[in-house]
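We modelled the chain as a single entity of 397 amino acids. Its sequence is:
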Amino acid sequence: MDAPLSGTRVVEVAHWVAVPAAGALLADLGAEVVKVELPGGEVYRHGRPRYSGYDCDFPESPAFHMDNKGKRSLVLDLAKPEARAALLRMIERADIFITNLLPARREKFGLDHESLLARHPRLVVGGISGYGHGGDRENWPAFDYSTYWARTGMMDTMRDEGVPPSMQRPAVGDHAAAVNLVCGLLAALRLRDASGKGQYVDVSLLQTGLHILGTDVANALVTRQPARRHDRRGTQNPLWNSYPVAGDRWLLLVMIQPDRYWPRLCEAIGRPDLLSDPRFEDAWKRLANCRELIATLEDTFAQRTLEEWGPVLDAAGVIWAPVNRVEEAVEDPEARALGYFYEVEHATAGRFETVGPPFRIEGADLGARRAAPPLHGDAREILREAGLSEAEIEKLV
């Protein structure tokens, strides 16, 4: 089966992560994506692992390749009129244009959705910004750290009681926003095909964060009260908690219906005596005596390693997971068996693995198999396709 977006043309004018990640997902779905970069290439491209403390000589950023695989590259200096004119000619051939330029810069370069839709009435335009189109802060620069993580309440909520706020991991909010943009673009293509009219899809890091934190946000909208932070030494349900094990590792129990799993857990961990302990006979008693039970479970789990506990807990049919390190997660047997990682080809680094799309369609071959393109590597081909003359191309290249 052909990839779902085979034959769909996308032009991307974006940097860093959120919109490029959406472009990579469109390429995974089969779209032809042209990435337009600034002279010298964007900063993200040049972030080698060694710069972040890894003992690795990979020549570019592996994360950049994840978020730009399957694309073609063209450098344009949009400060120059001839570069802007070439870009507009490329967009005239496109189905989708995506950007994370701030609205004022889009207007400056003639890339605002109103101008583009006036020129190209069937175009679908998508944008990601910190705060969304039309608000007072629409032209404020933002990263997901500031707007998705801190401003939404996520940074404050996602910590145990008594622990200072921590930084999020790189691009967590950006990748969530990218999926939102792709979802909106696919719906907009459906509307365009039905009506013949182009569409504009607007995604913000702020709205994405509020949706991701939606359970707490929904409660806050009704109660106007603070969210309760997790306190692992006094949580209401000790069967939904983290526990240290031997070897300085951790495991996580996730039994949200504790009475259903309590007997199984007690038998599995070799503590059937807890079943007859009046302090723990039902969920309400375990809540009233949660600190004592958590301390008891801590002592029990600390007697074995993750490797020893895994088969025991699996055999009991309880819901749990090891608190894996990232280097362990990339070896996860389920992820491996289901093809969540795959190899791409790079011009100088050869073949290497990257992260695949976060969905599968049965029978469809998804996932762009080429690494991110060399900077400006497809310039002449792209400009010829846009109808530029050899003289015009020579001037731009």
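As a brief sanity check on the tokenised model: Residues 9-214+332-396 form a domain with the Rossmann fold fold (CATH 3.40.50.10540). The chain is about 40% helix and 15% strand.
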